[in-house]
Design brief:
Bound molecules: FE2/S2 (inorganic) cluster
Number of domains: 2
Distance between the termini: 70 Å
Largest sheet: 5 strands, antiparallel
Strand order of the largest sheet: 3-4-5-6-11
Order of helices and strands: HHHEEHHHEEHEHEEEEEEEE
Structural class: alpha+beta
Length: 358
C-alpha cells in the first residue's frame, strides 16, 4: 500500500480498504523527485563518489608496488610511522569510503523511497502472482531510473570491480616465490649420518636398543652448527622439514617388507612432521608402537608403515630409508621418497621418487 497518491500500479487498491494506514506520515517527494536539475546533480555526485573509490583502488595498487615497504616518515603529533602502511591504509579507506558514500547517496536521493505493503502469499505463486511480480520488477527497474543512469551504473561497476584488486593483489603478490621442487626435498641425502637432536652426536646401530627413541637431524643441520653454517632462515627450514624420529622395533612385528628394507634390523626412521597440519609427532607409545601427534591426536602405527589409525591426518608418515656406514653409524640411504608434512595440491605429481629432479 502506498501512503500517498502516487501508488504503484501493481499494488492492489483494495489493500487500502482492508488495512488502514497505521500512522505512517504522508510521503514527501525529495528534491530530486520533482526537480530534474537536482536529480542530475545528485546523479553526478554519486558518479563522483564511485570514481573516487576507483581512484583509491588504483592508488592502492600504485602505492603497493612503488613505495618501499621500509620507508619511514615523521608526522607532526604522531611521530615516526611506516609510510608504506600509511599509504595503503589511506588509499584503501578512500576506496571503501567512495563506495559507501556513493551507495548511500544514491539510495537516499535517487532510488524510490515510497512505502508499499503487500499481502502474504501462499508458498506456490499463482500465474497471476508471477505476472504481478514481473510487473513489479519491471516497475522497480523503471522507477529506479537505472536504465537512464548509465553513468552511475558504469561508475559503480568500475568502483566495485577495482575495489576487488586491493584485496586480491597483496594476497597473491605477498605469497612470495613459488616453492616449486623445494616442497619435495629435505636436506637428507645418501650417506648423511643421523645425528641426535640437539646434542649432535652420531648414532651407532648397536646403540639403539629395542624400544628406545631418538629425535634426529641430518649431519650438519643440528643446533647452533646449522645456524652458524647455513644462516637462520635455512636452519629454520631444515628444522621444519628434516626432523625425524628413530625407533627400534622387534623385526617380527613389522608388517611391511618395504618398511623392513628401508630400516636396519628393526630400526626405522620416520618424518616427525605430522601429515595433518605439520605439528611434530613426538609421542611414542612403547606398548602399542603408536606415534601420537599432540595437536589433534592423529595416531600412526609404527609397525604398519606408520599408517593413520586415528585422527584427522590422511596420509602415513613418510619413512626415511636408512643404512649403516663402514663404522657402524646410522646414515640416510637417500632423501624421503615423498614430500614430508601436510598435503598440498600437487602432491601426486609424477616424477617424485628419490633422485628425480622435481
Ligand atoms: S597436526 Fe597432527 S593431528 Fe593435526
Amino acid at each position: 500500500m502506498s501512503t500517498h497518491d502516487n501508488t504503484p500500479a501493481v499494488v492492489d487498491q483494495t489493500t487500502h480498504d482492508r488495512f488502514p494506514n497505521p500512522g505512517m506520515p504522508p510521503h514527501r517527494p525529495r528534491r530530486a523527485d520533482v526537480d530534474e536539475r537536482a536529480s542530475r546533480r545528485a546523479a553526478l555526485q554519486v558518479v563522483i563518489f564511485f570514481t573516487l573509490s576507483a581512484l583509491g583502488s588504483i592508488a592502492f595498487l600504485v602505492a603497493y608496488y612503488v613505495i618501499d615497504p621500509e620507508l619511514k616518515g615523521t608526522i607532526i603529533g604522531i611521530g615516526e610511522i611506516n609510510l608504506f602502511h600509511a599509504a595503503l591504509g589511506v588509499t584503501m579507506a578512500m576506496s571503501l569510503l567512495g563506495i559507501g558514500l556513493g551507495a548511500v547517496h544514491w539510495a537516499k536521493t535517487l532510488m524510490p523511497d515510497e512505502e508499499v505493503a503487500e499481502d502474504r502469499h501462499p508458498p506456490a505463486a499463482s500465474d497471476e502472482d508471477k505476472a504481478a511480480v514481473a510487473q513489479q520488477l519491471s516497475h522497480g527497474w523503471r522507477s529506479s531510473q537505472l536504465n537512464r543512469r548509465t553513468a552511475i551504473l558504469g561508475s559503480a561497476g568500475g568502483a566495485l570491480g577495482l575495489f576487488a584488486l586491493p584485496l586480491i593483489v597483496p594476497v597473491a603478490a605477498g605469497l612470495g616465490p613459488r616453492p616449486r621442487g623445494e616442497l619435495y626435498r629435505t636436506h637428507w641425502q645418501d650417506g648423511l649420518r643421523l645425528m641426535i637432536d640437539p646434542s649432535g652426536a652420531p648414532i651407532r646401530a648397536a646403540d639403539v636398543t629395542q624400544g628406545s627413541v631418538f629425535h634426529v637431524m641430518p649431519e650438519g643441520w643440528v643446533g647452533h652448527q646449522a645456524f652458524e653454517e647455513h644462516g637462520a632462515e635455512e636452519a629454520m627450514i631444515s628444522k621444519s622439514k628434516d626432523q625425524v624420529i628413530l625407533v627400534r622395533l622387534d623385526p617380527s612385528i613389522i608388517k611391511s617388507q618395504k618398511q623392513r628394507d628401508w630400516g636396519v634390523d628393526g630400526i626405522v626412521a620416520y618424518s616427525k612432521v605430522c601429515t595433518h597440519v605439520g605439528c611434530p609427532v613426538a609421542l611414542y607409545e612403547q606398548n602399542t608402537h603408536h606415534l601420537l601427534c599432540p595437536c589433534h591426536q592423529s595416531t600412526f602405527d609404527m609397525t604398519d608403515d606408520c599408517k593413520v589409525i586415528f585422527g584427522p591426518a590422511k596420509r602415513p608418515l613418510p619413512q626415511l630409508p636408512i643404512t649403516v656406514d663402514d663404522e657402524g653409524y646410522l646414515v640416510a640411504a637417500d632423501d624421503f621418497r615423498e614430500p614430508v608434512g601436510p598435503s598440498f595440491f600437487e602432491r601426486e605429481r609424477p616424477g617424485l621418487l628419490m633422485g628425480d629432479d622435481a
